[in-house]
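Lab notebook, bench 4. The sequencing result for the construct came back, and we need a structural model before the next group meeting so we can plan mutations. Quick request posted to the team channel:

Model the 3D structure of this chain.
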Amino acid sequence: MQVESFDAIIIGAGQAGPALAARCAREGLRTAVIERGHFGGTCVNVGCVPTKTMVASARAIHMARRGSEFGFSAGDVEVKMARIKARKDEIVLKSRSGVQQWMQGLKNAEVIQGDAKFIGSQTVRIGARTLTAPRIFINVGGRSVVPDLAGLSDVPYLDNASIMELTEVPDHLVVVGGSYIGLEFAQMMRRFGAQVTVVERSAKLLSREDEDVSDGIRAILEAEGVAFQMGAECLSLSRDAGRVVVGAVCGAESSAVVASHVLLAVGRRPNTDGLGLEAAGIKLDERGYIVVDEQLRTSSKGVWAVGDCNGRGAFTHTAWNDHEIVAANLFDRDPRRVSDRIPCYALFIDPALGRVGMTEREVRATGRPALLAKMPMQRVSRAREAGETLGFMKVLVDADTNRLLGAAILGMNGDEVVHGLLDIMAADQPYTAISRAMHIHPTVSELVPTLLQQLKPLASA
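Done. Here's the predicted structure in token form:
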């Protein structure tokens, strides 16, 4: 068996992998980039890029229907799902091709397409080729969980990828799972014209969020006609005359929802099966994620795991930050760590939720003295002018250090506004660095100083 030697091997061309490949190549390392499918990973192909493209179409349709509020009429709005899909496909293809051309154009790098499997601690096989390197980076991403539901094998169902291949608007879409991915598709499809019902096992949406955030999101979606069935503890699926019957409550036939389409949106799992990780001595946790340390090293010397497959983040921005942490430690003598980063994410319904740091529930659990301020978006003149007054701003501060602990901005531009707070947290500056600043009027961000000027002691629960 002939073994080819490289200086670095990257398995998977998602968000972190290509950037690491480019850095390794720039450092003069002979690098192999292995990808079995489309370049760009989840984000480019079935995640951020296509979903946000379709969210943009849904918003344009929604605003056209609201024309009378702004003094015009667009007439009857005709939704052309096939054209929405075509626009999405065009943008995805351009992004995917850009990543592939970037990799294929790297000096010192070779792109290999195929399935990689470890056959030793620093050795992988791809088809008939066997490669070895002292540095191997695993960036294989994740995929949708298929839950164990009664009757699932008897009905057709959609996941986050296949739903974006529809060329006709569903008559009635049932979304199984009231979390981030499911809610984005729920609003999107409702705006396209589908009847939408979200079925969730728990008593509230988005279990990690505070009650007011969860309730605020539900109110936004209900205002647009999305229906909810919460506490659906006995989910089941069956067929009836070409439709899908979704049972939600134990022993209660009246709770069944008859749908044309069902979307399963109950979580993600890592693509770590089939990699032969045991041959390399790479440990997995009970959920199948690769166990890594603070600098993303696995249990096997010379092997790192980055992106969704390591369980240390489930977002494109955490995957990119993984690449930065690895590159800083390997090449820059900069001991960056996963624990250095501040948790942050967004829910891209419209208006969006921007979240940083701790929730109010988490702050209360610490028992520390804290301050809280909350303000409805109706107070924001820019939101009133735009007719976007749903939602609120909430921020929490450590009462002893005056450092920001966390924030939730649910409302117009919330996913952008929240970064001002995130930057102050990253800089380890007191909240007064914002509360005393002069912001531009009229903007959404101008109300953040006003919000912080209204901080009061966090009341007992």
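The chain has twelve helices and 24 strands.
Will bring this to the meeting.
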